[in-house]
Each structure stands twice: as C-alpha cells, then as structure tokens.
C-alpha cells in the first residue's frame, strides 16, 4: 500500500480567491434556459491550481447566496393526476402555478373529476380532502371501484399515496394536503465529491453538494443565506473543466425559477507552502517614479529630435 503523508496545517499559509457570481447570463451560460438553475462558468484562467507548485490543497465554500423563491408549488414534477371511475381511467395534467386549497379543488373539479359523478369537500380541521360520489353515479355504477391510481405525481400535495380507491360512496384521503413550498434548495458544484443526499433511505446520486439552503421565505420573495463555516476539499487541483452550479430539490430535480436570477459567492481557500511577499509601498512608489522618469526622458528625446 502506498504511504501517504499527512497534511500539517500549521506549516501552510492560507490564501483566498472570492468569486461573485449570478445566474443572469452575463458571466454564465444557462444550461437549462429560463429555469436558471443550472449554469456554467468558464473560469479556468482564474482557478488554474494544478500548475502552482506552492499549493498543497484547496477548499471551496459558499459563504453567501440570494435565492429567489419564484418556483411554483405545482410544477412539472408533481402535476399528474390519474383518476379511475366507471371502469375507465383518465389522466389529467394540472396547470403549473401556486394554488390555494380552494383554487386547487376548483381546478381538479373542472378538469379531472366529473362533477355530475363526484363532489369534493375540504376539512379545515384535518386539512384533508373527501370525495363523495353522487346519487347519479351510485345508481349507474353500483359497487364499482373509483379513486386515484399509482402514477399520479401530485399525490404528495393532494394527500394520498399510490393506489387509493374505494367501492363505497365516499373517500377521505389519508394525508393532509401539502401546499408548503419546497423545504430547502440544494446547491451542487461539479468540483466537489464530498457527500451523499439521501431520500427514503436511498442515495439519489448527489455527492457534489456545496450547500443546503432552508426555504424560510414567502413565495415570490428572496432567501438570504449566510454560512461562513463549512468548506469542502476540491476533488482535484486539476480544474480542467468549467464550474457548473446546479440548484435542485431533495429529489435531485432542477428547480424552475421562471426566469428569475440567483446570486452567490464562491470562496476558494488555497493552502500553500509559500506565498510571494508583496512589494513594499516604498518600493512600489520608487518603481512608479522610475517609470515616470523614463517616460519623461523618452519624450524629451523625441522633442529634441
């Protein structure tokens, strides 16, 4: 086995490089269009660490970020409703947007569930939905199975899970309706390989997490994040690729910010064996004065000619 030499921080000097970035597009390439949640920065000329022999290792952190809460509660990842009744199955794509419970029920009743057969009601006490079949349905299709099918992606916000059906006259969904915003935004950086994000006790493939930002802001407002503690080791000093920053939910789905930009700071802490001593102010002034004198002498020679 190859021997490795431990790093002694006491013998190293810390240098820093701070990048102030945003997802507006001026200094970045938007890889997912108006979503503005996956951007690429070609900054290899600034972070060419591999060619610097004074560097022992480099860490990366995100000390500051402003994230917009402009994403929709009902989005492309949770807008499918599959409903079975009278021996047939219908699939409805719910328009994306921010709904109240009342407006969501109105939307479902107008598009997914026939109102001549079913009526939806909501309990403010339990925060649960109850669907009742009408006398018309009961007389036409007595004892038939009706309800929601597996494959519905809106089950998490609607209050059910998988196949939830009945042969009776009413069906109360087992869970409360959930119209809370995404609980946190996960920031990924392709330069890292430092951990795992687990969902339902399984790895969803995120080992490049730079920050986890709690969503504590109202809809259509901004989240200001500050974290001056955590920093992560770069997986390689040979940064031969552009920096890619991605913002996802807990299921690794890229957030759709609907064209609104985010802003953040990346800090590279560079630990070196040695740092070149800065030129003293006196020497800097002398150097400038010397250059000015040489320029003046050159101009006098030109005038003399």
Describe the structure.
- The chain is of the alpha+beta class and 305 residues long.
- 15% of the residues lie in helices and 33% in strands.
- It has 4 helices and 19 strands.
- The strands form 5 sheets. Strands 1, 4, 16, 17 and 19 form a 5-stranded antiparallel sheet that branches. The protein has a 5-stranded antiparallel sheet with strand order 2-3-18-12-15, with no helix packed on it. A 4-stranded antiparallel sheet has the order 6-5-9-10, with no helix packed on it.
Round the mean pLDDT to the nearest integer and report it. Answer: 86
Please mark out the parts with pLDDT under 50 across 5 or more consecutive residues, or reply none: none
Query: Number of helical segments?
Result: 4
Give the biggest beta sheet.
Answer: 5 strands, antiparallel
CATH topology-level name of the largest domain: Jelly Rolls
Instruction: Return the domain count.
Output: 3
CATH architecture field of the largest domain: Sandwich
Would you state the CATH class of the largest domain? Mainly Beta
Shape: elongated
Strand content: 25-35%
The total of beta strands comes to 19
Estimated helix fraction = 10-25%
Return Rg in Å: 30 Å
Give the N-to-C terminal Cα separation: 74 Å
Q: H/E element string?
A: EEEEEEHEEHEHEEEEEEEEEEH
**Strand-pairing-aware structural class:** alpha+beta
